Amino acid sequence: ALARRKKSDPRFAERFEIFLAGVELGNCFSELTDAKEQRERFEKDRALRRTQGKTNYPIDEDLLDALKEGIPEVSGIAVGVDRLVMLAADASSISDIIFFPGSELFEL
């Protein structure tokens, strides 16, 4: 996870999601900017994936190097434009509006 934990209660992350008509449109969070904590999370995630027999991806050392250099506290949102179009078109599935229909990757 890349979201920063709440300082007032580290059991929770500084994040929220935006939903419309039961469809997630946006994932929003404050970025974790602590390189040490991010490395620990990456390593924990890799260990879990290993025990689950899932593909284990390399740790993003470039990201960790950038975090070590120091970046300001930031936050952002990732908006699913395809999901907005789906709702505007009153479609029941992303595969109904996607440019490359028929792919199972686009099933909602």
Automatic annotation (TrEMBL):
InterPro entries in alphabetical order: Aa-tRNA-synt_II, aa-tRNA-synth_II/BPL/LPL
SUPFAM superfamilies referenced in this protein's UniProt entry, alphabetically: Class II aaRS and biotin synthetases
Record keywords: ATP-binding, Ligase, Nucleotide-binding
Example of a GO biological process term: lysyl-tRNA aminoacylation
GO cellular component: cytosol
Gene3D superfamilies in UniProt: Bira Bifunctional Protein, Domain 2
One MF annotation (Gene Ontology) recorded for this entry: tRNA binding
This protein's name: Aminoacyl-tRNA synthetase class II (D/K/N) domain-containing protein
The organism of origin for this protein: Candidatus Woesebacteria bacterium CG_4_9_14_3_um_filter_39_10
